[in-house]
Amino acid sequence: MIKVKHLYHSYSNDNKYAIKDLNFEIKKGEIFGFLGPSGAGKSTTQNILVGILQLQQGEVEVAGYNIKHIKNEMFNKIGMSFEQSNLYSKMSAFENLDFYRKLFDVETRDPNDMIKLVGLEGKENIKAGKYSKGMKHRLTFARSMINNPQMWFLDEPTTGLDPAISSQIKDIIKKENEKGVTIFLTTHNMYIADELCDRVAFIVDGKIRLIDSPKALKLKYGEKLVEVEYFKDGELIKDSFSTVFKDQKDKLIDVINKYEILTMHTKEASLEEIFIKVTGRGLV
After folding, report:
1. Among candidates 54, 57, 64, 50, which has minimal Cα distance to 23?
2. How far is the C-alpha of 162 from the C-alpha of 192, rounded, in Å?
3. Burial of residue 197 (number of CB atoms within 10 Å: 0-12, 13-18, 19+)
4. Which residue from 86, 125, 146, 238 puts its CA 20 to 30 A from 53's CA?
5. Cα separation of 227 and 266, whole Å?
6. Source organism's superkingdom (predicted)?
7. Quick one: pLDDT band at residue 128, thresholds 50, 70, 90?
């Protein structure tokens, strides 16, 4: 669904690139996470893929279309939900969706169904300008689905949402993916990436550091720990032991044999911890 070769982009004439020599492919039906801190090049890349930014250098193909020669038909096949909502503030939620669906040359979904899907029923006649940030985010998310896209671009889809709504949005993403929808997800939230993505790319300073599945990354870079709470001389001690190194294993066995164990469980390295290990950078 997406092919990117030797992609570069600069916002100036001094050869300083926002993204540098990006190369990746996304298969049909895949959820691909594009992960990195603010300023890493996530939005620049996404904006090129959807035609907001002009292609300067490299080759990009989206849904079978060459981005260098964008055709209107491409937009019938893609959906976009960005972190910054760009709704018509003087239109109601229903009017926003009804207006947007008329821009397409393909069969679209019922605006009322989309409003209900994201939990905005009963608020469909309120002007979008009076919506809270989270409600605007949900409406933008609903709008991105209205043309039944084959390729779906999502930028921080759960940002600013409470846990219940966030869970609902993730369920919608999973269900759409089960229908065969390909998803390009940009985020700095490693937890949602770990839960949803088939593969992820780590991008820092405009360069992709690696691409792999979350599971493979954990096997390659992660270190399983055993976390133990135990009493020692009447004091509650919390400690972690690696399962990789022999001396750590020996210490764990020693603690188990000597002290009263309160709790003990294994902990797998998080995607965020692996990101920091691989890139040397945090996600803020």
Report:
1. 57
2. 14
3. buried
4. 146
5. 6
6. Bacteria
7. very high
Residue partners of 213: CB distance under 8 A and separation at least 6: 197, 198, 199, 200
Query: d(Cα 165, Cα 242) in Å, to the nearest integer?
Result: 36
**Tokens encoding 234:** 């009447």
Residue 152's pLDDT is what? Answer: 98
pLDDT over threshold 70, residue 244: no
Cβ atoms of residues 74 and 149 within 8 Å: no
Phi then psi dihedrals of residue 59, to 5 deg? -125, 130
3-state secondary structure of 118: coil
Decide which of 168 and 268 is more confident.
168
The whole-model pTM stands at 0.85
Task: Read off the pLDDT of residues 161-177 as tens digits, 9 standing for 90 and up.
Answer: 899 999 999 999 999 99
Burial of 86 per CB tally in 10 Å (0-12, 13-18, 19+) = exposed
Query: What is the sign of the dihedral through the CA atoms of 105, 106, 110 and 116?
Result: negative
Which residue type, as a one-letter code, is found at position 265? H
User: What gap in Å lies between CA 269 and CA 226, rounded to an integer?
Assistant: 11
The pair of structure tokens assigned to 135 is 């409600």
- For 117-234, where are the E strands, in sequence order? 151-155, 182-187, 199-204, 207-212, 225-232
- Distance separating alpha carbons of residues 284 and 36, to the nearest angstrom: 9
9-40 as b/e: b if 16+ CB within 10 A:
bbeeeeeebbbbebebebeeebbbbbbbbeeb
Q: What percent of the chain has pLDDT over 90?
A: 70
Q: How many CB atoms lie within 10 A of CB 99?
A: 13
Q: Are strands 207-212 and 199-204 parallel, antiparallel or unpaired?
A: antiparallel
